[in-house]
Amino acid sequence: MSSSSCHGPLRRKDRRRTSRQEQPIFTTRAHVFQIDPNTKKNWMPASKQAVTVSYFYDSTRNSYRIISVDGAKVIINSTITPNMTFTKTSQKFGQWADSRANTVFGLGFSSEQQLTKFAEKFQEVKEAAKLARDKSQEKIETSSNHSQASSVNGTDDEKASHGPAETHLKSENEKLKLALTQSASNVKKWEIELQTLRESNARLTAALQESAASVDQWKKQFSICRDENDRLRTKIEELEEQCNEINKEKERNAQLSRRLEALESEIQEKERELKDLRKQGEIIPQLMSECDFVTEKLEASERENQNLEDKVRSLRTDIEESKHRQRHLKMELKNFLEVLDGKIDDLHDFRRGLSKLGTEN
Questions:
Q1: Cα gap 200→193, rounded to integer Å
Q2: Facing residues of 52 across strands?
């Protein structure tokens, strides 16, 4: 039986038999998968979403089946035999091999409890199927022995008509035939069971290999993700250090900006002082011109007051003192102008240094 026949819609005869003779004994919901028939390794989803998966019991045939229908499509139609084994491959995934359907079914559950209940029910149904098979074999053997005993013993009339030797030979013949028949039947049955076990083992081995390959792949992906996480963590630490450096640089820039503002305000204050000094410097020539005018007046007074020598002497003395004061004042003024020029040069040099510092920042 191919896997494609399991996926087709139920025939009318099967639907009538399911509804009349089979009854659901356990129902759950799960995502259904089937092994890829080409690679025998990858899982192929048989349903787009979680569907109903049920155990059915056929009272007439005394058999059990797992059936799942997605709309009008039968995705699981698996008869449970004593040789089947349900294997848990993860906390929420289980699988079993069906030699009649020539495939491996997989079920993904939403919780580990649902998987455990399904596995327990599978084992229970498997034991019930084994008991049913043993009972049917006992009935077949009992009926076969009964019919053979009847044919070997025969009727009393037949015994009377044949001699003891012939009767004994017939009895031995029938016993040999029965033994040969039973041996052939047992050999055939054992061969079928052995082939079924081999197919189940092969499918389970393939499924286990696939699970191991999946685990190795997940380990590789986990290692890659871990390495990427470490790399990103290192990158984040580097970026945090860069951010700290940037914040420190911003703080230094802010300090320099505040210092620059303070220096600019100081320069403006010095410029105001310089402006005041320049205004005072503009008054000095006027004072000097006034001094010259006074000197001229004194000289005129000297010419006019030649007769007043005493007064002239006293005026001369005053003039000499005034001249001395003027010379002293001129010297002080000259020194003051030299100091002022030096300060102006210093202020210009200081301003050029500030401008250069602002340009470098």
A1: 10
A2: 29
3-state secondary structure of 317: helix
Place of tokens 């640089």: 249
- Tell the residue number behind the tokens 């420190």, with chain if given: 248
Distance from C-alpha of 24 to C-alpha of 40, rounded to nearest angstrom: 31
In sequence order, which residues have a C-beta less than 8 Å from that of residue 361 and are 6 or more positions away? 253, 256
Q: Can you give the C-alpha Rg of the chain in angstroms?
A: 60
Helix (H) / strand (E) containing 154: none
Mean pLDDT by 10 residues, the chain (361 residues): 40 44 86 88 88 90 89 89 91 91 92 94 90 76 57 46 61 69 66 71 73 75 82 87 87 88 89 86 80 84 75 77 86 88 87 82 67
Amino acid letter, residue 113 = Q
Q: Would you list the DSSP string of 169-181?
A: HHHHHHHHHHHHH
Q: What is the pTM of this model?
A: 0.39
Cβ burial, residue 39 (10 Å; 0-12/13-18/19+): exposed
Q: How far, in Å, CA of 283 to CA of 279, rounded?
A: 7
Give the β-pairing of 103-108 and 22-35: antiparallel
pLDDT value, residue 88: 92
CA distance linking residue 324 with residue 148, whole number of Å? 169
pLDDT value at position 112? 92
